[in-house]
Structures are given as structure tokens and as C-alpha cells.
Please model this.
Amino acid sequence: KLKQLKTREETQSSPTDSLALGAWRAIAMRQYESRMEAETLRKRLQAAVNSQAVMIQDLENVLKKTVREVEKLTTVELPEILEKKARLGSKDATLYGTYFENLDALYERLDEVFKEVGVTPTPEDVRRSVGVIVGAPSTGRETCV
Model:
């Protein structure tokens, strides 16, 4: 009978054990929720960075195309130059304006997200996040990862 009582005592949980178990569960749940929030934020930030990388690449392509067209203009006869200049003027100005407005809005939103999280990225952090090697000479062909 004594053996049965000891076994029963060992298997029954004391109030402090159940309190500790409840506290452990509460802590574990808070940590899990914090991790999920951090993962969600990381995904949002990564999507913002990817979106900006695409926009930067598009803008770079437009600028390269414009430079090529301007270089071609310097070797063409005068009537063709005037025609291309007129065409480049209004269409590209609108395109550049749209790109820069959108880029500014994205940067403002990204800054807001960083402030919400309490992160202040340094230029080195930004370069590392888009895959540019800090201190490496620029080749003009860096790509975002």
C-alpha cells in the first residue's frame, strides 16, 4: 500500500508543476507568435526589396536605351535628329516622371516599415541586401539577389 501511495504521489502533479507548465506554454506561445510576426515582416521587406530591384533594373534599361539612341542621333543627318528629339522628349519625360514618383513612394513606404520595426539600415546593409559586394570596384553589371 505504501508503494502505491508513493507511485500515486509521483504521478500526480503538484500545483507548482501545473503553474510552471502553464507559464512555459505561455512563454512558448509568445515566442512562436513573435517568430511568425518576424517571418511575415521579413517576407514583406524582401518583397519590397525585390520590387525596388526590378524597378531599378527597368529604369537602368530605359536609361541605357536612351543613351544608345542619343549616340545614334549624333551620327544621323539633321532632319532625323529633330524627329527623334521630338519623339524622345515628351514620351520619355513622362516615363521617367512615373518611375521616379513610384520609386519615391516605395522608398517612403520602406522607410516607414523600417521605423515600425525599429531598424535603421546603413548604406552597407543596403548594398549587402541587394548583393553588391561592399568595397568591390563597380563593373556596372551588378545584379540583385
